[in-house]
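Subject: Interface between my chains keeps coming out wrong

I've been trying for a while to get a sensible model of this assembly. When I model each chain on its own everything looks fine, but I need the whole thing in one frame so I can look at the contacts. Pasting all components below, labels as-is. Any help appreciated, I'm running out of ideas.
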Amino acid sequence: MATPLSQSIIKLHEERHDLEDYQSGVPRWCTGCGDNAILAAVQRLCRDENLAPEKTVFVSGIGCSSRFPHYMKTYGFHGIHGRAFPIAEGVKMARPDLNVFVNTGDGDCCSIGAAHWIHALRYNMNMTVILHDNHVYGLTKKQASPTSPVGLKSNTTPRGSVLEPLNPLTVTLGVANVSFVAQAVDWIPELMYEIVSKAFHHRGFSFIRVIQRCPEFLPKMFEPWLHDPSKTLLLTHDNGLQPSADLGRIYKNQRAHDPLDIHRAREIASSEDPIPVGILYQDPKVPCYEDLRGAGKPRTVEAVRKGLDAEFDKFTIWPDEQGQERAA
Amino acid sequence: MDMAAKFQDQLVFHMTGRRTGEGLAPLDSASMRPALFAGYRDLTRLRHDYPLVLVETGKSDAYAASLTLLVNRVLDALAPRGIEGERLRKHVLRLERELRAMLAAGVSGDLSELWAAAAEKLASAADESVAKVLALAGGAIKIDGALVDCDEHLPSRFMIHAWRHVQAQKAALFHGHLDGLQRRLSDILRAAYAHSEAGQKPAALKAAVGGMHADDFDFSAMSRLVGKNVPKDELPASRRKRIEWALSVIKSQRFHAAKLGQGEPPHEFLFDNVAAAVAAYRDRLPQAVELVKAIAVAELETRNGYDEADHDPFFEAYDEQSIAADDLALFPDYLVCIPADRNDAPENAGLMDTLSSGLPVKVVVQVTDLLEEASLGTGHFAFGVRSARLATTAMGLGGMFVLQAAASSLYRMRNRVEGGMGCRGPALFSVFAGAPAAAGDLPRYLTAAAAMESRAFPAFVYDAAAGDNWATRFSLEHNRNPETDWPVEPFEFADEGLQRQRSDVAFTYADFAMCDRRNAQHFAVVPRDRWTSAMVPAGDWLALPEREAAERVPYLLAVDEKDVLHRVIVDMRMMQATRRCVLLWHRLQEHGGIHDSHAVRLLAREKAAWEAQKSEEIDAIRKAAAASGAPAAEAAPAAATAGAPAAAESAPAAEEKPASDDPWIETARCPSCNECQLINPEMFGYNDNKQAFIKDITKGTYRQLVEAAEVCQVAIIHPGKPKNPDEPGLEELMKRAEAFN
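Reply #2:
Try treating it as a single job with all components included. I did that and got this:
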């Protein structure tokens, strides 16, 4: 008889999934929302990598972006505000065999969840993290977020935001044990897919910041970047992205950047115009927390049952001596 | 229990219709329904074609509009896209549902009054602003008329309304023509009077000049002067008589209602039986002949072309025999609405007579019962010989318009109905209004649609005037999957492990029959633990060879009140009726050019001839090659396949901008944000990577293309040039499209 693991491997090879197999329900995001582009790219990844839905989990906090797990027909955990990372870490510790994704927004990650974010980077557990950064709180109808630009008028900043925005890229690149940092924009689907794919294949905490439009509350914010390709800086490298010839013809502003060069990565990260798009930093050698703690054994149903049985056995009264020995 | 014994019970039931043992449960028609109906429990929650607004005559080009469509239009106009419009959308859609519920409860009335009633009801449970919002939306619906649901009265109401709509158009043309004639005839008489002695008397001159300048002239002097100088041109007495006669006939006509309601009331053209309509036609024929004559005389007179020597004998001989179809087209058509309870054999015989005589009679036959028993005895499925097959019989007469449809699809076929009502000559409309109350509790909309889908009452149109061959005259296009035996629908359910299962389920005649409680004895429910592999879906069972079919039992999928899935086996009787239904359907298909046996035979013959010719050619090449010593075997196939790789290589380039003025989308750049599909999900679709492309350009308008280009956040939609030159507002749209091309 095959072990559960090999059974699931066999199954993995047997079942092919279409994009629709990963789609659950109709997204309730506003029309034109950039979240749709991220959903499409992630669903494509799931299909192309043929991820088993029962072996995949999406964890989120609170916010528009955090509705993401509802629209994936996989396992999902819609957590509480700012706490997507600890939940995802728990999932990974308990079930290192699962593909773990985290979807978080600029408020969820960079404001209330900032402490968890910093330490999640330091833990470097193997998961793919997508920061949906639309520079505003959308679900609560327009309040300033940590990444809102100076001068943004919102319900909480009626005279315009006064603080300089936080740059999630420079923050991540400043934390110890950081292993993968990339930036994507929702309006270039090809690169979005490539970056999500690279992040998925990186073993460690892969952090992608996606700059994303909010057509409802900040309809004009990224207009200049949408209409002028020269305001986007493509980061290319043999170890990073290699955009297609068609895309290269449109986005001519390109720069070769080795993802291993963290100093150059920090320099690029601080640029906001042009927006850098690509892999800023990737170090495959940083150890993962789950490996350091030896969480390697997948907790299969059998393993759990065995563990429970062992616990129950402690309290079982055995009728014969043999049983008592066994219990001891 | 072993499998053989389980199956034995089922086989016995299938062969004899008798349930033996404990293994089979009777079918409870009240709770069981075909599995495909699971999603249609509450029709008031579904936005479908019904209810309809029968638009007041003359208020709009369309004579009927779906409530859903009207609500969509209002929301498009009033509710902005996105969150701002959400509130309005929610309230209006709730009101739409309320209207459906009211109609289902038997309330009737015009859209405006029902809207107001529903708005009041909803607003009473909410704050004041809701009432305001709903009144605003109600005011934005520009058209009004009776709101009708798909009930037993729908066919007659809908058809009478369509007929009135067509007659009103006809009347407008008629009055337009006759008003002109009357005016010109009166002008002739007035001119003649002005030149006559009576017209030149001082009093007449004074009246002609009018009151304002009556004191400025000496009319006696004027009379003397005019009398001396104006040449005498008295109208000949015979001509004056003719003109006056024509004028009086035209004025007193009672065929079309007079415009301002003056004169005698018009004739009634609406009847409930053919005999009365024919009698009325005969009675009025002399009047019609008079009117046709009067119009012809008037036309000649206005052109001053009446030649007594030629025309007098012609008009004297003009009688009932001389009247032609073109003349009859002036008059309103007779509409006979035969109610379901009078749709019997003698009536049908009279009907066939009338239809074949070519009189301008439009007949609406309502069919309510397709599953009634045959007149020849118990236990025989009549299969609607008397009613459902009426339309096919009439089609055989040729020379007329025949439309058969279920009430559920009348709205979708409204253009064909209008065409039929407006055609010259007779027309027959056979409409199935949904199963009667005796059949069960399913809404009529569902049973009507089921009859059409199950091929028990297929929709078709036969229009003799459309062309001179079957291909142009006959159409099956309103049926679902007209090329297959049964329509096949995808069906999803959860199995015991709560895992999603998908299968394709055919909707057969037996499924339709299961909806009728009078047929319950032909079905038996098999519990889950007794399902065997020998059970075959009914649609597949019919396709099995006879020997194999004898070892299998056909089943249908059904759901109970709790939406639990069951298998229901079907007895032989019902399967025979099902087979007969599919045979009749095949006959219709052949008429429609689907699986046409003549064409198949011709194709086979041509193919055999072509293959023989090719093999001769190949033999010749082989022989020639053998003679020259070359390897002959590959020569022929290589030549045949040479073109293929080249075509495959050129395919990827198709994504590039097309050279023509066709619209296109830069699919690779689409960020999947759904904007275009919200505008028209049939025109725009997603590819395998969830990126937009133009799925079917014919399913939408140029306006939608341009609007999609405008809302597209990444501006990758290029509308090209319009395909339909008649679309309104093209100039402005093309200007807007320039920025995206």
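Reply #3:
Confirming on my end. The interface with chain A takes residues 81-83, 668-675, 678, 688-691, 711, 713-715 of chain B (CB under 8 Å).
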